[in-house]
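Continuing the batch. This is chain 6 of the set; chains 1 through 5 are on the previous pages. Same settings as before, nothing changed between runs. Recording input and output for traceability.
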Amino acid sequence: MGSSTPPDPILTTRQAAELLGVAVSTAQLWMESGAIPSWKTPGGHRRTRRSDVLQVLGEREVRHPQAIQWDTALADEFLPALQPAYPVPDDEAARLSALREAQLVGTPDEWVFDRLTWLAAQVTDSPMALMTLLTARRQWFKSRTGVELRETPRSWAFCSYALLGESMVVEDALQDPRFRENPLVTGEPHIRFYAGFPLQDAHGFRLGTLCVLDREARKLRERELKALRELAIMASEEIQRRTGH
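Output for chain 6:
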């Protein structure tokens, strides 16, 4: 009896997303970018092979234990500071616990988030954009465009203030008493402008922000602010997909 090749089913974008445990929009972006090999049907719909999706899934699972080891080694980062030199939300202890459970801090770069920071810079015509995560000690950048730093002390984070509301815009940091002596303003990268929106997990905790920065004082037009908000929602949806269980 001859051996037969095991079947390798063709999957729709939604089926691929369900297998990966990500949002449909995320799977669509991966397929369109080539991160997941795919093709278009005559009707214009994306299709992929199950084996290709499983390969991506395997890569995600390899990274997952690394994130756990990182969090364990730096567990005190996820405990509230006794005398913080920065503003904290009322739910800081629970927020830090949720951030630890999300297992994002210290993980490798991911195209799904890098794409969003790149788009944030493009739609706002900003030279810098970040996806930040705020532990008790530091502001860590899960994704960054136009910025070489990977992290800063939490006390330097503009984003600590952004966590307190629905958004935050600083048109000129040199004129703002909260930030004019900040090392990120007085030194590299010489931030003058900031605009950011909080990123929420599946339980509503604000883990960090999607923000844009400029070295010149400026304003955002309403459509630019709305576009940045929509990108922050997309980043939140991806986080929520991972933290909803």
